[in-house]
């Protein structure tokens, strides 16, 4: 039995139709959609290991392998690309600075977080998805999706401002093709927009000189560096709160894709958590960053309406190939930040609005003070990156905003319901 059925005639998607996870277009077109996912994840997946002191090519290799593992464990039902998680940058930096953790000890922390996420996934599969829904109903997952999208806005705008003309060309191309074209150009708008902005920057001499030099000096072939982890108790207080963040991100990803594609993915939540946890544990065991679903890749699916796991598989295989070819990785790294900013301005905005769509579909009552106070506070804290200092531990707004929504909302919900019940009796 084939892994994917061919959508339509394979050469052109049915107008305004969704290409489902179990479908694919012709392989040349599928490769093109896979390249869009690759470009969407590449910048952050290479930046995070640089900020945390891990080898870039190792994280690239393990993100590709982790994505393939995720697709395997979810049986091709959940389209996703797992890239390096930005949420780990500050906690790992704090563990290194305050606890003196070595790279091996940090990797041990990443691996332990992955193992705990696996345990959560096993519990969800054993006890049912309602276990998770009680703590993360649509009102919570919608808020997390919205917060993820909006919290990335400063990064996108900052990149846009660095090279405004290439960024504007990229943005304009993506928006026009997405809105005007109902054919293949509209579905490949992100890839075409990046190529337009990249080409202009190359002709105008706006490619970063140091990146061009790195491209010239990079070898065509090289093995990624593998590092063995070490588990140290001193690292755990810094990283264990991130279990909730990873769980929230994976669940929010499923809810976002379900809302956009019109499919019920709740039965696959346990498998997705197990797959995501295994991917992170594998990455931490060999020298890579923690892995999570990527906002930009969700945005690509929203823009193209192509949810084929075949495209995600192509992106994963391409990442593995790039990890063994510093030259090809350096070539993609010459894409100007402004070009990436122009593309992500659209993608992150689409993701944020998916969070609002989850609320609308669930008919969330915003006259309810619990919804207003908890969600409003957490979203603003996450978007504004309100960093809290707890002893020697610095917790970013995205981290404590997610933890706050998941832990505080159910408690206040029960308190409010009990008060209403008492008043009615």
From TrEMBL:
Q: What is its main location?
A: membrane
Membrane topology of the entry: Multi-pass membrane protein
Q: Does the keyword Transmembrane apply?
A: yes
Gene Ontology, cellular component aspect: plasma membrane
Alphabetic keyword roster: Membrane, Transmembrane, Transmembrane helix, Transport
Give one GO molecular function term.
xanthine transmembrane transporter activity
The protein's location, in the record's own words, is: Membrane
Q: Where are the transmembrane segments?
A: 47-71, 78-96, 102-123, 135-153, 165-181, 227-248, 306-325, 337-360, 372-391, 397-416
Pfam families per record: Xan_ur_permease
The answer, when asked if Transmembrane is one of the entry's keywords, is: yes
PANTHER family registered for this protein in UniProt: PURINE PERMEASE C1399.01C-RELATED
Tell me its family.
Belongs to the nucleobase:cation symporter-2 (NCS2) (TC 2.A.40) family.
Q: What is this protein called?
A: Uracil-xanthine permease
Q: Which organism is it from?
A: Saccharopolyspora phatthalungensis
């Amino acid at each position: 039995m084939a892994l994917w059925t061919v959508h339509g005639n394979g050469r052109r998607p049915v107008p305004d139709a969704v290409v489902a996870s179990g479908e694919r277009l012709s392989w040349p077109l599928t490769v093109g959609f896979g390249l869009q996912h690759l470009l969407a994840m590449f910048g952050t997946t290479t930046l995070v290991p640089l900020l945390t002191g891990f080898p870039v090519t190792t994280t690239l290799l393990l993100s590709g392998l982790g994505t393939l593992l995720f697709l395997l464990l979810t049986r091709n039902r959940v389209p996703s690309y797992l890239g390096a998680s930005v949420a780990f940058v500050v906690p790992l930096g704090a563990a290194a600075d305050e606890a003196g953790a070595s790279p091996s000890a940090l990797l041990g922390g990443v691996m332990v977080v992955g193992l705990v996420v696996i345990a959560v996934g096993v519990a969800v599969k054993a006890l049912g998805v309602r276990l998770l829904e009680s703590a993360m109903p649509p009102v919570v997952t919608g808020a997390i999706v919205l917060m993820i999208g909006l919290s990335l806005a400063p990064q996108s705008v900052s990149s846009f401002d660095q090279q405004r003309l290439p960024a504007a060309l990229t943005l304009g191309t993506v928006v026009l093709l997405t809105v005007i074209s109902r054919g293949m150009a509209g579905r490949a708008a992100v890839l075409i927009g990046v190529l337009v902005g990249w080409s202009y920057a190359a002709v105008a001499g706006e490619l970063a000189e140091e990146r061009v030099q790195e491209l010239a000096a990079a070898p065509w072939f090289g093995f990624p560096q593998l590092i063995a982890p070490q588990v140290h108790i001193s690292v755990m207080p810094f990283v264990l709160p991130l279990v909730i963040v990873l769980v929230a991100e994976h669940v929010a990803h499923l809810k976002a894709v379900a809302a956009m594609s019109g499919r019920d993915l709740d039965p696959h939540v346990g498998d997705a958590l197990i797959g995501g946890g295994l991917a992170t544990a594998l990455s931490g065991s060999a020298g890579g960053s923690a892995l999570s679903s990527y906002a930009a890749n969700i945005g690509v699916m929203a823009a193209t309406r192509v949810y084929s796991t075949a495209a995600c598989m192509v992106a994963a295989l391409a990442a593995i190939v790039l990890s063994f070819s510093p030259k090809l990785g350096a070539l993609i790294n010459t894409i100007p930040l402004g070009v990436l900013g122009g593309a992500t301005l659209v993608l992150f905005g689409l993701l944020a609005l998916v969070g609002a769509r989850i609320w609308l579909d669930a008919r969330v009552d915003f006259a309810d003070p619990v919804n207003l106070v908890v969600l409003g506070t957490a979203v603003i804290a996450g978007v504004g990156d309100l960093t809290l200092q707890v002893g020697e531990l610095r917790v970013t707004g995205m981290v404590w905003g997610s933890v706050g929504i998941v832990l505080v909302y159910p408690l206040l919900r029960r308190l409010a319901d009990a008060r209403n019940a008492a008043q009615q009796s």
